[in-house]
Amino acid sequence: MNDVDGTAARTPDPTVDDAACEAEAVCRKAEHDQEFAAFVEESYHTVERVLRSVWWDREVVEDALHEAYLHARVEWSKVREHDRRIGWIIRTARFKILKDRDRRHREAAVAPEDLPPAPHSDIADVWEAQETLRAWLRQLPARHAEVFQMSREGFSNREISRLLGLAETSVRSYKAAARKGLGELAERAGFTRSQGSRRQGERRGSR
Asked: Which of 13, 76, 2, 12 is nearest to 39 (CA)?
């Protein structure tokens, strides 16, 4: 009788194990929810700027971002292990935009979007400067603009190469071409380095 009681005492209770596993799963989900929310907050605007350097339509970009982040939340246990999580979001959102664009092209002939109007020559504040740069990027080849904006957001040439499927030499070439194109647009709008130097000299001379 005592032997039987002793054996029963040593047998694990499955209900206790199930409860422990469930509690662990709840804690892990809460941790992942908090981690994912912080990731979205810190990465959203960076990804948006990268995508809008190529695609001007804010609604298209926002739809792609919404779907990319939803997908990331579902796959967060895998996505969180990536060295560059933000790159995963950019790649997923780009794929959605390109897929939707191809679908629309198949459904109907779509006229190309008009280029944005020439930027105003007087940049009053930071917001207007960002809008001006975005308008100029919109006038560059899409790949040049995308590479340039990703570089501005802190991606290395190697990371850009891996995310966009380009050779590093191509990344450097596109960045140089983008800088040259932006310089020409800036000169056309009146923002030239030589003029800026003259203005600074004039101010110093007037004192």
From this structure: 76
Q: How confident is the model at residue 42 (pLDDT cuts 50, 70, 90)?
A: very high
Cα angle 78, 36, 45 (rounded to 5 degrees) comes to 110
Output Rg (C-alpha) for the chain, integer angstroms.
26
Handedness of CA 193, 188, 147, 54 (dihedral sign): positive
Token pair, residue 68, equals 């990319």
Show the tokens assigned to 91. 């790649």
Side-chain-side CA neighbours of residue 21 (13 Å): 6
The sign of the CA dihedral 167, 39, 76, 47 is negative
pTM attached to this predicted model: 0.57
Query: With bands split at pLDDT 50, 70 and 90, how would you rate the model's confidence at 197?
Result: very low
Q: Which residue has the tokens 């919404």?
A: 66
Mean pLDDT of 43-49: 91
Give dist(CA 26, CA 22) in Å, integer.
6
Predicted confidence at residue 40, as pLDDT, reads 92
CB atoms within 10 A of CB 162: 17
Round to whole Å and give the CA distance between 74 and 29.
Answer: 11
d(C-alpha 148, C-alpha 37), whole Å: 28
User: What is the Cα–Cα distance from 89 to 91, expressed in whole angstroms?
Assistant: 5
Structure tokens at 184: 């020409």
